[in-house]
Design brief:
- With 116 residues, the protein is mainly β.
- Helix content is 0%, strand content 49%.
- The chain contains no helices and 10 strands.
- The strands form 2 sheets. Strands 2-10-9-4-5-6 form a 6-stranded mixed beta sheet, with no helix packed on it. Strands 1-3-8-7 form a 4-stranded antiparallel beta sheet, with no helix packed on it.
- A hairpin with a 6-residue loop joins strand 4 (33-39) and strand 5 (46-52).
- The radius of gyration is 13 Å and the shape is globular.
- The mean pLDDT is 93.
């Protein structure tokens, strides 16, 4: 069965950092690009970063360039999102999935709250 398990969220002050992890299993990761998404309160879920499993190609939405870094540890089957310089507007539930549509079933996500 496909499993996507996100972890690493928490409460952080503006300017702080967090590293999210996505443990992906149950499918051939080489066949897909893996993406991080987020859903802020009252907003739709949006893709924010994407990586081809080889790690050779990455994509970020413009507002995150220079602050967030997506990476992969193929041996561990884990995709990371290093988030630096966090801002209030980064508050959201963060999810990982293949870069769809279609998508695999969504995990529970991990809550990131940026607050002073």
């Amino acid at each position: 069965d496909v499993q996507l398990v996100e972890s690493g969220g928490g409460l952080v002050r503006p300017g702080g950092s967090l590293r999210l992890a996505c443990a992906a299993s149950g499918f051939r990761r080489d066949d897909y690009a893996i993406a991080w998404f987020r859903q802020a309160p009252g907003k739709e879920r949006e893709v924010i970063a994407c990586i081809l499993n080889s790690g050779r190609m990455t994509y970020y939405i413009d507002s995150l360039k220079g602050r967030f870094t997506i990476s992969t540890d193929n041996a561990k089957g884990t995709v990371y999102l290093q988030m630096n310089g966090l801002k209030h507007e980064d508050t959201a539930v963060y999810y990982c999935n293949i870069y769809g549509p279609p998508f695999y079933p969504w995990g529970q996500g991990t809550q990131v709250t940026v607050s002073s």
